[in-house]
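Same chain as my last thread, 181 residues:
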Amino acid sequence: MKLLTHKLLHAFISISLFFCSNLAFSTDSTSPEDIVHDFYSQYLKDDSGNDEALVKKYVSDQLSNSIEDSTMCNYDSSDSVTASESESEKKCLQKRECKQYKGNYICDWGGFWIESDVNYFTKSQDVYPSWNLNIKTRAIMNDGSKSVIGIVLGNDSDLKKSLRVSLVKMKTGWKIISVTE
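reply #2:
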């Protein structure tokens, strides 16, 4: 009887540990709110220096490529061209739908509206010190495959920035597909 009780106790402890470890892993930054918070926490660091890897991890390939193309074509230096001249010229000379939106000039880059002269992810030219320390997210919509997260960067010491971040669930997890004001 003592042996059976010992085995049952051991089995109970093993099963409890298994469920607790799975619970711990399931809360590991997988919600859209956590993804947005993690992205902005890392993106807004002064010393990040590795934005390319960060964007690859959190942003859809299509959005990333559109931002890259827009930046390359709107950059004022000929040093910015990384693709072959004819390929980049073709891409940059394509006729695009453009318009004024909230004081910014935006153009359609492969289905994504990209502003010129501002950072796509912050919709600003400047980043304030309080933004990295004060990031608040809230779910606006989540249907299991698409999500919209409201984010507020900053506190009352600097200008606050409110954004809407749209995400889509992919095989690799949630990816950012647009950022709007």
